């Protein structure tokens, strides 16, 4: 019997991910490697969970289905129970539900705060299970939305590189799979998909990008926009990795007791120098969500446009100040917060 193309589209990248050495790691009590799959009950994560059970069991892996209840919607506990029942019905070896508290006062916004809480508990789950991988169900469509959002925010290459295929214990096998395939795969397999109300709420920027902006781009510029945005992310990820490595070397070369050597940093190309200054501010405690390119360029003037400026105010609150040939990032009261040499 021929496998449906959408099911094949989901299973193939899952098979490739699980076949990697890290996909077989983290032995458990029954001496089989363990892989966890995060599932919300939506089409993407349900299709991923089903593919993981099919491919994982062929490889002798123990598959654990994990659902995270953020407690942000009425009936969230009941939805978590439904997902657990679906996971058990599709043949996972174990199910696990985790309830997290989302910090509304974190200043990150509800989506980002929920994401941080979710990843934190999934890392704990992986450690508890000794799982080699935790699989996440983000698709090519999610990647395209992320890149487009980064572009509109002027966030630079780091944002435009999109979501990473793998980081830490996490992997995203479906970043090359269209959402239409996960929806179709669920239909073919008879999996009842939960429609998260947040995914249709136009109050969220990502929803407006998904439902309004990308369809207009496809209609006006032709098909393939989502794939092109995802390819852009892949290309920029390679470039950003190289720039990050060069920035690490520049910072190591410029680091002195008490700060960063101005003369050494000044010799770096702007692309590296600006990244180094951004990194120094973050390392000193400046919030990433508040630190802008304008801040970085102002600090850069302490190096390349020195006219005796007193200091540059940075979010934190912090100050960047030039002192005795060093660039120092410190609290307004003078408490030194530039990382010490390592």
Q: What are the key terms here?
A:
five-stranded antiparallel β-sheet; six-stranded mixed β-sheet; disordered C terminus; 342 residues; alpha/beta; single chain
What this model shows, in words?
- By secondary structure, the protein is of the alpha/beta class.
- 51% of the residues lie in helices and 13% in strands.
- The longest helix has 30 residues, at 225-254.
- Residues 26-31 and 338-342 have low confidence and may be disordered.
Radius of gyration, whole Å: 23 Å
From the N-terminal CA to the C-terminal CA, the straight-line distance is: 61 Å
Q: Determine the fraction of residues in helical runs and give it as a percent range.
A: 40-55%
- The succession of helices and strands, N to C, reads HEHEHEHEHHEEHHHEEHHHEEE
The main β sheet shows up as:
6 strands, mixed
Uncertain spans: 26-31, 338-342
**Count, helices:** 12
Q: How many E-type strands?
A: 11
Chain-averaged pLDDT = 87
Percentage of residues in DSSP E strands: 5-15%
- Summing up helix and strand content along with how strands pair, one would put the structural category as alpha/beta
In what order do the strands lie side by side in the largest sheet?
3-2-1-4-6-5
Which overall shape is indicated by the principal axes computed on the Cα atoms? elongated
